[in-house]
Amino acid sequence: MEQRQNPIEQRKNPVELKPVFMPRVNSDNLVKTDMVRVERHVGFASRQKKKTINDLHQVIRKKYGFNNVLEMSSKSGNKLSFLLSPLSLKLTNDDGSQYSVENAFQSSMIFEDGGPYTDLLSAPPRQARRDERLMTSGELIGYNYFGMEWSVEPLTTFYDWLYVNALKQNTQLYEEVMQYQAFTDLEFNPKKKIHCAAYALAMFVALKKRELLDNVEDPMAFFDLYSEFKVSNTEKLLEAGWV
What is the pTM of this model? Predict the structure, then answer.
């Protein structure tokens, strides 16, 4: 009699492509974004996601020879990742007011039919991210952060500026970051999003190592970085058909 395989034994974990963001010091990129193949452990349990993260980092270490890779999602189990999350990391304005990177970003969006919704500055960060108005106000056309206007192009510029400046203000925190050679975020889906804290974090490390952090508070000086260096984010990988 033919033996039937257990359906659980037949099921294989799917292979996915996940981005890795690497600071660059001696190249025409500040950040190099690459895609890495990893087997995703099926299931929603934290331990399954931790297995996937461990496998992803093993692949990165083997492929690039890195020793230190930091996962940015809440599944990393690393306290540093929590502190570096845009939900936690805060930017202090000239008037002394403080807002998380997430609140600052979401509350600054200008759409065809509304915004910026400045009340989101005081909302819980996760709630601000999911506010219905951000989904129903038409096409995103720009940003306005306390009267400071930003274009949507180049992509991620405003978000990166917020994150880089927030981290620069947290000296003790960014000193811990400098030991890492690459950054990942298992929860980041480049098919749905373009802004990613792991990318902005890699940019910060590159700017710090290149001694280019002095003038990043100036929006125009920061904006110029996107013409001085080649941009290598997940948008470029989407255009190339990687994702």
Answer: 0.91
